[in-house]
Amino acid sequence: MRVHDNVFILVIFAIFLFVSTIQLFYYFYYYLAVYLHKPSDIVKKKKPVSIIICAKNEATNLKKFLPAILKQDYQDYEVIVVNDCSEDDSNDILETYQEQYPHLKVSSVKKDPKFTHNKKFAQFIGIKAAKNEILLFTDADCEPESDKWLERMASHFDDKTSFVLGYGGYLNEKGLLNKYIRYDSVSIAMQYLGMAIRGLPYMGVGRNLAYRYSLFFSNKGYGAHNHLISGDDDLFVNTNANGKNTCVEFRKESHTRSIPSREFREWISQKKRHLTTAPYYKLRDKFLLITEPLSRIVFYAAFIILISYSYFWPVVLIVFGIRITTQIIVSTLVQRKLNEPGLLAYSIFFDIFSPVINSIIFLSNTGSGSRKVKWK
């Protein structure tokens, strides 16, 4: 091996050790925290809650999932459905449910060719209609895991709490795409829940998120991000949440399950919408979120180079084994806690390719822009 080859491979070895350390830090400090987390002190006095759901042509899902929300085991709550320019049977279904459930309120947005709007507008209409201080958000295609969902999410609101971040997973169905969507959901949850537990909340998911009515209006609603198509959930949390005013709730009874995309193109469109908000995160959060997948890509690339050169291969294999073993153990523990069975066998494969897939989707957004992204 020539001198410059020796220098090159030594640099790669040093980089390999460095990124391996970064990977282990994320797994032990942030991701394992999700498994180790114990619920904070629960507020005994139940406060009234307003559940807000925005629906656009969701007749089928409203008929299937809304009853589970209307039948929550909670004494004082209202459900507000914003029927946003729907052209299906949503209105008829909602009228039927209103006759059965007095705590269901419906706010309808009529279609106006002179006025186009995004989901934030519908969300704002729902918030304005709410009569309670505690707001709990979910989607029309979501179903709570139990009738204790509302109680679990609301139980953390004391005088110091402004946000409660919940877990929103996807229904377990057949197919590789479903496995990847669920894996992606768990991976994101390990990040935002783990970082929130460590005092660095940076996002929440609109499928299962609660915050205060007064906080929304004291911070001028969606503020500087009002013009963006997306960000009604993660950017509002990113702007206003901190380690002192945020709690997490992901006991099994508090999970929600959404209908996953069943076509790859549909999932890509949804993922593109989610990633449009990333450039607007705080600089600290962008750094932390970019560092992990970037170090992961470098970790695998450096490993392949070092093995091909047979450079310190016993040490390289040991370090690689420690990192992979850590991933398997932590992922298994978190997947069990989030009630996501059947993913472990796919996790190692997805772990290699997911940062590449996300990078491609993110870069495609910069070229196409966010204006083509749908309401949902």
Topology overview:
Layout: H1 3-36, E1 49-55, H2 59-70, E2 77-84, H3 90-100, E3 104-109, H4 119-129, E4 134-139, E5 142-144, H5 149-154, E6 163-166, E7 168-170, H6 176-197, E8 209-212, H7 213-218, H8 234-240, E9 246-249, E10 256-258, H9 264-275, H10 283-309, H11 313-337, H12 344-368
Parallel strand pairs: 1-2, 1-4, 2-3, 6-9, 7-10
Antiparallel strand pairs: 4-8, 5-10, 6-8
Helix pairs in contact: 1-6, 1-10, 1-11, 2-3, 6-12, 9-12, 10-11, 10-12
Overall domain count: 2
CATH architecture of the largest domain: Alpha-Beta Complex
CATH topology of the largest domain: Spore Coat Polysaccharide Biosynthesis Protein SpsA, Chain A
Structural class: alpha/beta
Shape descriptor reads: elongated
The percentage of residues in β strands lies in 5-15%
Task: State the share of residues found in helices, binned by percent.
Answer: 40-55%
Question: How do the helices and strands follow one another from N- to C-terminus?
Answer: HEHEHEHEEHEEHEHHEEHHHH
CATH superfamily of the largest domain: Spore Coat Polysaccharide Biosynthesis Protein SpsA, Chain A
- For the biggest β-sheet, the strand order reads 3-2-1-4-8-6-9
What are the defining features of this structure?
376 residues; alpha/beta; Spore Coat Polysaccharide Biosynthesis Protein SpsA, Chain A; 7-stranded mixed beta sheet; 3-stranded mixed beta sheet; 12 helices; 10 strands
